[in-house]
User: Which sequence fits this backbone?
């Protein structure tokens, strides 16, 4: 009996590497005890939500006896939330924005799905620099689109502008960047983005179906050492910024994100009408009402970036001591490090598992020979893994 569709069946059979490692982790934890296993696989922000969220929840509790306080709302979100978001994003993106140019979505993931549903035709291509957030392929595939990963420059994972330009075809509909990046932690420079936008402007000249420059930026607030995350909306009239409060307010389960459309986009009203319709017909209907009110109250606050920076520094020190090479992440909460010795990334993750350390092979993000670590866990767990990293790296080198 075929109880599910062939496409979903195929995806299930090729379980993602993150999922496989997650399952290996459950087994290891059952066998050795959860507190002995150092799990660096999942990017689930562990810090509590900012205090503004708790205070706002307390206030909201006193208002929910009003009719429709938790009812349906306009598909694009609460007017007051869109208004506040527009003011906030106008400062962040350095362009004038009105509430009409902002749509509140179910996280950045919901925003990406709404955008793809709105603009993609079956067979359209979405170009993204690789290594990349693996869900992008599924999101594009949901609407018949095809992800076209383009290798980034090594060893620092900066954009390969020539390769990105060369990947543009008649079917290209979106160029999708993610900065600060999951999995590499790279933050793209203003001049790289400007050069990319200039190439897209040339490709878009006279084109009936424009290529959108889309920036997925749920880690925008999380940049270290004074590194600036340049805004995307001033760079191209066909740009869309997508973000969320999953990480900045530690609100990932509340599913609040946004889409903001460049104020200089031709026919922006048509795109926005499509986005708002798709927010509805994809079944999201609207983003969660409590989450929108919480974001409205807490907008501008962020969790303590210093905590993440200190964890990054701890992890960097441990990896260096183990003789493992990596570009120092400038943002987000991931390391994408080079596998030492001559073993491959799956074999190295196996050696790490023998030391009760869980990491995801780089091939899970489109680049074998590397492995990804997250650092959204207590610094004590990171420090506890030091000896295990050293032993696994020594064993990998001994095999090489
Ligand atoms: C690069 C990237 N984009 C989008 C998302 C989706 O985040 P959310 O939908 O919670 O905003 C994630 C989550 O980890 C991510 O890493």
Assistant:
């Amino acid at each position: 009996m075929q109880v599910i569709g062939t496409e979903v069946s195929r995806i299930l059979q090729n379980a993602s590497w993150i999922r496989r490692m997650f399952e290996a982790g459950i087994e290891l934890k059952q066998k050795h005890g959860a507190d002995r296993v150092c799990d660096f696989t999942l990017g689930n922000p562990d810090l509590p939500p900012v205090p503004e969220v708790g205070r706002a929840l307390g206030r909201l509790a006193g208002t929910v006896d009003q009719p429709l306080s938790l009812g349906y709302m306009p598909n694009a979100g609460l007017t007051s939330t869109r208004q506040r978001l527009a003011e906030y994003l106008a400062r962040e993106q350095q362009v004038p924005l009105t509430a009409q140019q902002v749509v509140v979505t179910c996280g950045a993931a919901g925003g990406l799905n709404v955008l793809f549903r709105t603009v993609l035709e079956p067979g359209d291509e979405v170009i993204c620099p690789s290594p990349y957030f693996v869900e992008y392929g599924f999101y594009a595939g949901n609407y018949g689109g095809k992800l076209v990963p383009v290798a980034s420059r090594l060893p620092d994972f900066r954009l390969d502008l020539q390769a990105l330009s060369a990947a543009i075809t008649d079917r290209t509909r979106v160029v999708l960047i993610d900065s600060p990046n999951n999995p590499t932690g790279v933050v793209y420079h203003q001049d790289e983005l400007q050069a990319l936008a200039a190439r897209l402007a040339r490709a878009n000249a006279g084109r009936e179906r424009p290529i959108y420059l889309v920036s997925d930026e749920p880690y925008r607030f999380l940049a270290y050492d004074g590194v600036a995350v340049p805004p995307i909306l001033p760079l191209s009239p066909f740009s869309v910024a997508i973000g969320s409060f999953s990480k900045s307010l530690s609100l990932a389960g509340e599913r609040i994100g946004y889409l903001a459309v460049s104020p200089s986009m031709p026919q922006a009203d048509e795109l926005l009408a499509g986005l708002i319709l798709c927010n509805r017909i994809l079944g999201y209907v609207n983003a969660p009402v409590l989450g929108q009110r919480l974001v409205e109250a807490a907008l501008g606050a962020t969790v303590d970036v210093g905590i993440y920076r200190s964890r990054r520094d701890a992890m960097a020190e441990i990896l260096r001591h183990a003789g493992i090479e990596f570009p120092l992440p400038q943002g987000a909460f991931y390391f994408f490090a080079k596998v030492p010795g001559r073993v491959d990334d799956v074999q190295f993750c196996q050696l790490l598992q023998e030391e009760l350390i869980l990491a995801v092979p780089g091939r899970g993000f489109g680049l074998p020979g590397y492995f990804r670590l997250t650092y959204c866990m207590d610094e004590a767990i990171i420090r506890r893994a030091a000896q295990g990293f050293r032993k696994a790296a020594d064993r990998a080198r001994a095999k090489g």
About this structure: DSSP finds 14 helices and twelve strands in the chain. Residues 6-49+303-399 form a domain with the Aspartate Aminotransferase, domain 1 fold (CATH 3.90.1150.10). The longest helix spans residues 305-321. The chain has a mean pLDDT of 96.
